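ok so i was messing around last nite and threw this chain in just to see what happens. nothing serious, just curious
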Amino acid sequence: MNSEAPIDVVLIGGGIMSATLGTLIKQLQPDWSIQVYERLGDVAEESSNPWNNAGTGHAALCELNYMPAAVDGTVTADKAVSINEQFQISRQLWAHLVSTGVLPEPEKFINPTPHMTFVHGKANVEYLKKRFAVLKDQPLFAGMEFSDDPAVIGEWTPLITKKRNPRQKIAATRSTMGTDVDFGALTKFYFDDLVKQGAGVHLNTQVTNLTKQADGTWNVKLLRLVGQTRSDVNARFVFVGAGGGALALLQHSGIPEAKGFGGFPISGQFLKTSNPKIVAQHQAKVYGKAAVGAPPMSVPHLDTRVVDGETSLLFGPYAGFTPKFLKSSTWFDLPFSIRAHNIVPMLAVGMSNFDLVKYLVGELLASRGKKMKALQEFMPTAKSEDWELITAGQRVQVMKKDEKKGGVLQFGTEVITSADGSIAGLLGASPGASTAAPIMVDLLARCFPTEYPGWESKLREMIPSLGTKLSDDPQNAAASLAATAAALHLPA
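result:
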C-alpha cells in the first residue's frame, strides 16, 4: 500500500478530455499536484489522434443529425443551438490560452474551413430549406448561406457538382465560420504546458484497478508496461478519461453510479487522398444525411483535414464492428464489460435497434466498390486509385438503464461522478472533443462544489460567456464570435 502523501489529481488517459481537465485545474489551482497515466507510448494516440476523428469542431453548422425533422415535418433548432453554445465555450478557452501562452499560435491546431451541408432529392432539398429558415436568424449561425443552384454550389466546392447529373435536385448550406481542429496537436500542447507547470505524464503505464480507501482517497494500481513493474499511488480525486477503456475502470471502482451502464463499440474507416490536384478543389467539410438506421457518428462527409501542415481529404466514415473498445485493446472488451447490473439494458438495446444491426452488417459486407460508390454520390469524379482506406478510432456508444424501455442507446457523452465527487469518468462519443471545455467545466462544478465558487471569477476571465447563452443576446454573440475569431486567426 502506498504510504506517500496523496496526489491531488490523477488523470487516467492521455486524450483531449484529461488534457482539458488538467489544464483547467492548473489554471484554477496551480498548487495542486497532477499526475497523468497513459498506457500507450504517447498521448493522443486513440480517439484524440487526428486520423482517428474528423476534426470537425462540431458547432452544428453542418451536422443534420442535430436537427432531425419531426413526424409532422417540423424542424427545431434547440439541439443545434445548444451544441454551438458549447463549442463557443471551447473557442473562448482556446482563445484565452493562446493569449496567455499556454497554447502556441492557433494555426498549429485550428484552421478556418467552411462547414457545408449537401443533400439531393426533392424531399431532402425541402428539408434543408426548412433547416436553413430556422437557423439563418440565430445569432450563432449568422451568415449561413443556402443555395439550390448547382453553379453556386460549384463555386463553394467544385468537387460536389463536377460531372453531376444536371437533372438531380441538389441543395447546400455553407457557413464560413467553420473550422478544422487537430485535437491530437491540441492535446499534446496542453500536456506540454502541464509538464512545464510541474505535472507528471507517465507513458506506457496502465491503471489496473481503483480502490476507495477509508480516508476517502483512491488507491490507483499501476502497471509499468515496459519492464512489467507494479506500483500504486493514492489520489484525492481521479478522472477516468480513458476513452473506450473508461467503462471497465469505472466498473472496477465499484461506485454505484456506474451500475447499469454498458458500451456498444463501433469502428470506422475513411477514404483518404493527399493528391494535391484533388485537394486543391475542395476547401470545406461537407456533411450529408445518414442512411436509415445508421448512428449519428456515421453521417457521410467529405472533409478537408490539416494535420502537421499537410492538407488532405477524408470521406466516410464507413462503420464496422469489433468487440474492442479501443484500437489497441483486446477482443474481450465487450464480453468482459457485461455485468449482472447492465445485461438487461444491453439486451433491451439490442432488441430495439434492429435497424442499427442491419446497417452495421451491411457496412461490414460492403466491398471497396460500394464504398467508392458512396463517395461518388458526393464527388462524381472520384477514382479509386486516388484514395486509400484508413482505419479511424473506436467509438463506444453508451447503453444505460431506462425505466420504460429497459435500456437505451445514447449517442452522445455521459459524465459519471461518485456521490462524494472524488471520482468521475466520461463515457460516449460525438461531439466529444469539440465540447471538451464545457463538459470539463461542468465536471468541476459537480466534483468540487466547495472550491468551485472561488474559481468562477477566473473561469469567467477565461470563458466570458460562461453561465449565459450567447444565442439570447445577438449583440453579445456577435462580439464574442469576433473576439475569438481574431484571437484564433479565424474569419469573423
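not much to say yet. The first helix runs from residue 16 to 28.
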